[in-house]
Amino acid sequence: MKTIGIEGTAHTFSVGIFDGEEILALRSHTLRPEKGGIHPREAADHHVEHSGELIRGALEDAGLSKDDVELVAFSQGPGLGPCLRVAATVARALSINLNVPIIGVNHCIAHLEIGRFLTGAKDPVLLYASGGNTQVIALAGGRYRVFGETMDIGVGNMLDKFARESGIPFPGGPEIEKMAKNADRYIPLPYSIRGMDVSFSGLLTAALHLREKESMENIAYSIQETAFAMLTEVTERAMAHLGKDEVLLGGGVACNRRLREMVKTMAEERGARFYAPECRYCVDNAAMIAVLGHRMYQAGIRQKIEDTAVNQRFRTDEVDVIW
Ligand code: ATP
Ligand code: FE2
């Protein structure tokens, strides 16, 4: 069954095509604001502008015509309202125009399902670390439950904000990773864990203050070591509590080699297996939306156009996992 996925929760508009076995195409375009943070309306305009060419390009890459599409899947939330509404409108238009079913999916669950699909992980604890989201998720009692999460900003947001304040353009994460490689010492920063939850705003403020006396390389390194150790600790605790022996990474920050290394080491020390998809499937992408939409449809889940309103606060644990 050929499924077209539409993603547009934040900066990225993306179109992916999945045929049930293989990802046939993935085309994405990301808004990169020159300065300042993301403006939801500007991002929505960006999505409108790029949707047509991305859909055409993805169909071309897959060697399909629009009439070959059998199912439309889209990101229903969580995310920024204006952005979500563009993605949903594009998806509805496609579904009506092509006369094929539509299915709205949870964006966070899609990050998990693409990882399971690509790596073969069966029942992992997912560390989902992106710009807007930072959650530790696992299947329990038929739903994906959030066992730990950030109490303030996402880890990627923290990296992006530090970079922006320091004159480094968006996205800041990859630049911080590069700078950290040339550090010569670690400077302690606020390490903030409460139960299974983390917070990053104290670390961000302290790191910004350090700029008066420390090199950017050393600060970048110290931010990474501190923030990623926090994430690794809560992920390990979730694995121990739940008795799960697989860990999976997802979200844009999961592109980071140092985060991968730390979580992998933790997994090896516990005798657990470590999985991480390649970077383009960690960042926001529509292949994951197509894969999850396809799974849900195959499991018998159906939606009417009336059910496709977006949900900015769509929680991971609202969905019954019957696939
Ligand atoms: P979500 O809606 O899931 O919160 P998002 O809009 O934050 O998604 P993603 O594409 O998942 O989008 O992640 C983007 C984030 O990933 C940015 O904060 C960026 O700085 C960060 N990132 C990307 N590459 C790296 C890297 N190598 N190291 C650290 N952070 C990275
Ligand atoms: Fe995401």
Question: What can you see in these coordinates?
Answer:
This protein is α/β, with parallel strands linked by helices and 323 residues long. The protein has two domains: 3-111 and 281-318, Nucleotidyltransferase, domain 5 (2-Layer Sandwich); 123-278, 2-Layer Sandwich (Nucleotidyltransferase, domain 5), CATH 3.30.420.40. It is 44% helix and 20% strand. The chain has ten helices and twelve strands. The protein has helices at residues 40-62, 81-98, 107-119, 155-165, 172-180, 201-210, 216-242, 257-270, 279-282, 287-298, and strands at 3-7, 12-18, 23-30, 71-77, 102-106, 125-129, 134-140, 143-149, 193-194, 197-198, 246-250, 273-275. A five-stranded mixed β-sheet has the order 3-2-1-4-5, with helices on both faces. It has a five-stranded mixed β-sheet with strand order 8-7-6-11-12, sandwiched between helices. β11 (246-250), α8 (257-270) and β12 (273-275) form a beta-alpha-beta unit. α4 (155-165) runs parallel beside α6 (201-210). It starts with a strand and ends in a 25-residue tail after the last helix. The chain binds adenosine-5'-triphosphate and fe (ii) ion. Fe (ii) ion binds next to α3.
Number of beta-strand segments? 12
CATH fold assignment of the largest domain:
Nucleotidyltransferase, domain 5
Based on the structure, what is the oligomeric state of the protein chains?
A: single chain
The major sheet is characterized as: 5 strands, mixed
Radius of gyration: 19 Å
Q: What share of residues are in beta strands?
A: 15-25%
Attached small molecules: adenosine-5'-triphosphate, fe (ii) ion
Are there runs of 5+ residues with pLDDT below 50, and where?
A: none
Can you write the helix and strand succession as a string? EEEHEHEHEEEHHEEHHEHEHH
